[in-house]
Structure prediction request, 158 residues.
Amino acid sequence: MSAIKYPGLKIFSLFILLLIFISCNRKESGSSNDPNGIISISYSEIGGPLGNYSIIKVTRDSIHLEQGVTKTKIHKEWNSAVSPQTWKRLVSNIDVKALDRIKSSPSQQSVDGFDETFQIRTPKKYHAYVNAFADTAYYGQLKKLKDQMRALLPTEYN
Prediction:
């Protein structure tokens, strides 16, 4: 037995639900028309004896940074807008087709080392790399990306 007693209201409710579903799907798929385009980039350095962390996330329109030391409970955050030109410059040197060839390496946190992590999201795939600096053949584009992301930060966060 339906919770809605009037057939007209039932049809109207289904129509509204259908519109909501369609509009949500359109936003998700409309984020990038290019299947090899970049949606977001994250870079993090986490580890060390004091539990240091630095996480940078860049999207088409913003950059967000979190930094801190867990042992001393220090935590800082910073946000800023990103211009379309800055975003284009940031992603222009990333060869999306080469991302599948990059190899990660084992974690170094177990010996009080730092782990360097990259996360790159495209409409088709999510790429994640831990300590890819050992992959000398393909790490160059990630190194350049890391340097460009750090250059976007204010000097007090570098």
User: Anything to note?
Assistant: Residues 60 and 87 are 6 Å apart (CA to CA).
